[in-house]
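Lab notes, practical 5.
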Amino acid sequence: MLVRIKEAMTDSIMLKQSVLADQVLLEKIEQIIGVCIIALKSDKKILFCGNGGSAADAQHLAAEFTGRFYKDREPFNAEALHVNTSYLTSVANDYGYDEVYARIIKAKARRGDVLFGLSTSGNSMNVIKAMEQARSQNVITIAMTGKSGGKIALASDFLINVPSSDTPRIQEAHMLLGHIICELVEKKMGELV
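Output from the prediction step:
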């Protein structure tokens, strides 16, 4: 068991080192931070969606924006789109699960908002449809995926494709990058006050 524990930790460290060495990806993260700042300064929303562990990560990141990260501050307008179970189950029942996020994007999202779609495979149809709907409404789309980017890559303005096909390691990297985004958005927004 100790061998596997060490292997898993080593795999996680190596993936993060790979992300750290990817200058293009790091510059994309910097651009995304700027996009989020512009949206929040313009009284826009940051929305998140995903399934399973990615839904948990989406909810976690929305909470970091609306609550606090490092500093006591005014809340940022952010929301994970799956937290209303009555909505989610009724739309899934009436229209199909593939439509749950696209329909709420149509209702809530406005031009200049930002949507983060989390999918380790990049092929979650409900997240892809949300991104497509968002783009049709001039919402900025950011996909957080694994190595290939999957089909969601075509529906995203920004693609954060972590160079791995191992779901747990991808999710760990998504949380690291999400936390960095939250930290720097919070810091820069604080400097603008």
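Observations recorded by the TA: The beta strands are 46-49, 78-80, 114-118, 140-145, 158-161. The radius of gyration is 16 Å.
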